[in-house]
Amino acid sequence: MGNINENIRGKKLFKEGSSGQKAVKGSDGKITVSKEIFNDLQGLTDISEVYNDDGLYQQNRFLLKQIEDLREDVEELHAFIKSAFGRDYTQASSKGAKGDTGATGPQGPQGATGATGATGPAGADGKNGSDASVSGFKGEKTVGKETWTFEAGLLKSVK
Fold first, then answer.
1. pLDDT above 90 coverage of the chain, percent
2. Mapped to the 3 state alphabet, what secondary structure does the chain carry?
3. For 78, how many CA atoms within 13 A lie in the half-sphere containing its CB?
4. pTM here?
C-alpha cells in the first residue's frame, strides 16, 4: 500500500521505444511507441487542437465524451479517497463507527461453594456471675418404643 498523491494525473498508456519502432503492446499493458511519437505525445499540453479542427472533432467526439466521463469519475474517486482516508494510508482518518452491542446472554449456573475457612481463635472466658440455686426436676421422654426418664439434682453455681 502507498500514499495517494495530491493531484490527479492520467495513467500513461504508452512508453518510449527506439527510433522508428512500430507501436507494440507489452506485457505491462503499455504500448511502446517510437521515440518520435513518444516525444510528440509528451509535448502535448491540451486537447484543444482536436476541438478546434472540425474533422478531428467529428472523428473523435464519442471518444472525447468517454474520456471526459472517465476523467470526472477519477476526480470524484480521488476526492472521496482523500476525504475518507487522507493522503497517507498510515494516518487513515476513516475508521468507521463502533457497532451496537449485542443482547445479554442467559445467566450461567451458580458456581460451586468455596472451601470453608480456618476456625478462628477461641474468645475470652466470660465474667463470673453470682451464685444461683435451682431445685431438682424430673422428666420423661419417649422416643420410638423406648421411654427415657431423667432427674436433675441441685445446681449450686454456674461459671
1. 9
2. CCCCCCCCCCCCCEEECCCCCCCEECCCCCEEECHHHHHHHHHCCCCHHHHHCHHHHHHHHHHHHHHHHHHHHHHHHHHHHHHHHCCCHHHCCCCCCCCCCCCCCCCCCCCCCCCCCCCCCCCCCCCCCCCCCECCEEEEEEECCEEEEEEECCECCCC
3. 13
4. 0.39
CA 71/CA 65 separation, integer angstroms:
10
Strand partners, 150: 139
What pLDDT shows up at residue 44?
A: 83
Q: 42 and 14 in contact (C-beta within 8 Å)?
A: no
- Evaluate if residue 158 carries a pLDDT over 50: no
How many whole angstroms separate alpha carbon 78 and alpha carbon 84?
10
Residue 33: other Cβ atoms inside 10 A: 20
Residue 112 C-alpha cell reads as 460451586
CA 8 to chain centre: 32
Tens of pLDDT, residue by residue over 109-134, are 998 988 888 888 887 776 665 554 54
Query: Terminus-to-terminus CA distance in the chain, angstroms?
Result: 90
pLDDT at position 96, please? 60
